[in-house]
Design brief:
Structural class: alpha/beta
CATH topology of the largest domain: TIM Barrel
Order of helices and strands: HEHEHEHHEHEHEEHEHEHHEEHHH
Largest sheet: 8 strands, parallel
CATH superfamily of the largest domain: Aldolase class I
Low-confidence stretches: none
Number of helices: 14
Number of domains: 2
Strand order of the largest sheet: 1-9-8-6-5-4-3-2
Strand content: 5-15%
Shape: globular
Length: 360
């Protein structure tokens, strides 16, 4: 018998498992497969226009009748520094030339407008909405509550978890430092938010009275079972799904994940202007020494997006953002639904083994 956790009841799913929202990787095919297998799929909408959000959620709904999650970044409007942007463009010029790209021009906009995205989110009316990089204000939270949308807030510290609970969140995604891609820290420095999953989860569980979801470095059922034993109501996995055939990432990125060692990822601002964990490559090595001068998110992200996309099409991993968690080498490359089933079978086995251990 699988534990009937608070997350299962809250989200209306069969298994206490969430596929993390991963831009460029989480396709409608992946999301729907995860949902149909009994877990919660997540649409990464942070870089999407309202029109694209509406179109892709319609595609997900055409593939599944199960609940799914839509994720947004809570970010203020950027305040560009023209001189800093020019320096950033100059540093990126060699990469553009290596990929045969034309000279860069300053984008008309550096990212999507959160208010417009939020309006689209309300129109979409997903069963679940998750948020990263900040906490929602009372107006936004009230609009979600009025529509019965379950809210998950991302926290990297106990203080951030408490802030989300005070704002009205229904659950907390406790993001440990092992997690791939962007750090969700918003109340303290990046360094202070680098708390490991095993240390973070039980402290957050003790600090709040809403379900906690463990995230960061979890790749198999042993990790999920450990999270449940730490008091989490479920687990969120991202890197584990990156190598699924439904994933939208390049083959070079998938191969890099399969080959990754435990010590091959670092956290850097070079790709987007916000700290994110990825596999070390030429892009990261060349810009990390000057990352203090890199424009903040989303400005740097807008300046590098074209380079990373071109590198993906050209199968040039040295210029891609190879986002990955610290256990990337445990990736399997199996179909998303098959992965969900395997993860739950492994979790059952790990919990059974733990229960059978005799105390001497």
């Amino acid at each position: 018998m699988f534990p009937n956790t608070a997350l299962i009841n809250l989200l209306g799913i069969e298994w206490p498992l969430i596929q993390a929202p991963m831009a460029g990787a989480a396709t409608p095919a992946m999301i729907s497969a995860v949902c149909n297998a009994g877990a919660l799929g997540s649409l990464p909408a942070a870089y999407m226009s309202p029109k694209v959000m509406l179109g892709l959620t319609s595609e997900v709904r055409a593939r599944t009748k199960r609940p799914f999650n839509v994720n947004l970044f809570v970010t203020p409007r950027p305040t560009p520094d023209p001189a800093q942007i020019e320096r950033a463009i100059d540093r990126l010029r060699p990469m553009r030339e290596a990929l045969g790209m034309p000279a860069a021009v300053v984008p008309e906009k550096f990212g999507e407008d959160f208010e417009e995205q939020f309006t689209a989110l309300l129109e979409i009316h997903p069963a679940v909405a998750s948020f990263t990089f900040g906490v929602l204000d009372a107006k936004c939270m009230g609009a979600l509550k009025q529509r019965g949308i379950v809210v998950i807030g991302t926290a990297t510290t106990v203080a951030e978890a408490r802030a989300w609970q005070a704002a009205g969140a229904d659950a907390i995604a406790a993001q440990g430092s092992e997690a791939g891609a962007h750090r969700g820290t918003f109340l303290s420095s990046f360094e202070a938010g680098m708390v490991g999953t095993m240390a973070l989860v039980p402290q957050v569980v003790d600090a709040v009275n809403i379900p906690v979801i463990a995230a960061g470095g979890i790749m198999d059922g042993r990790g999920i079972a450990a999270a449940l034993m730490l008091g989490a109501a479920g687990a969120q996995l991202g890197t584990a799904f990156l190598t699924c055939p439904e994933s939208g990432i390049s083959e070079a990125w998938k191969q890099a994940l399969h080959n990754a060692r435990d010590d091959q990822t670092l956290v850097s601002r070079v790709y987007s202007g916000r700290h994110a964990r990825g596999i070390v490559n030429e892009f990261m090595q060349s810009l990390t020494p000057v990352q203090a001068d890199i424009p903040p998110f989303p400005i740097q992200n807008a300046l590098t997006t074209g380079i990373r996309q071109a590198a993906g099409k050209a199968n040039r991993p040295e210029y891609q953002s190879l986002f990955a968690g610290q256990a990337a080498g445990m990736s399997r490359g199996i179909a998303a639904a098959e992965l969900v089933t395997a993860l739950m079978q492994e979790t059952r086995a790990a919990l059974r083994m733990a229960a059978d251990v005799s105390i001497q």
